[in-house]
Amino acid sequence: MEDYREVDVGVGHTSDYQRKRFIARRIGEWYAPSADARSGTYHVAYETQKGRYALHTQRFENWPEQVPAQVPEDNAWWTDATAPEGDAFWNASAEAWGSAQLELHVFERFEELLGAVPRQLAANLERARQSTTVEELDI
Hints:
Layout: E1 5-13, E2 16-33, E3 40-48, E4 53-61, H1 86-93, E5 99-107, H2 110-115, H3 119-130
Protein name: EXLDI protein
InterPro entries: EXLDI
C-alpha cells in the first residue's frame, strides 16, 4: 500500500475545472467502460491522512476514434496511473480523451465509499483492507 502523499485532482468539466489538493494514499482504482467502449468512468479511491475516504471519478464521453475500443479485463491498460505521477497524467490528458466530468466525493466511513463504487472495485478495496499487514524487514 502506498504511503501518504499530496494528491492533486481536478473537479468540474475538462474545459473548466478547479484543482483540489489533499494528503492521502491511493487504496484502489478501477475503470468501468460503457458497452460500446466509447465512454466510461475511471475511479480512484483514497484514504485521507485524517481518516476519511475520497473518491475521484473521471467520466469520459465520446472518446475519439483512436482510443482503443477494448480495455483489457484486468485493467492493465491503466497500470501507469498507479505511479505517483499517474494523477497528473490522467488530469492533464483528460481533454485529449474527449469530454470528461471530474468529481471528488468524500466519505466519513469505509462502508460509504464501498456503496459509491462499482462492485469490482468494492471487492478489491475489501480484499486490500484485509491484507494490509506489512512485514518490516531488518535487512
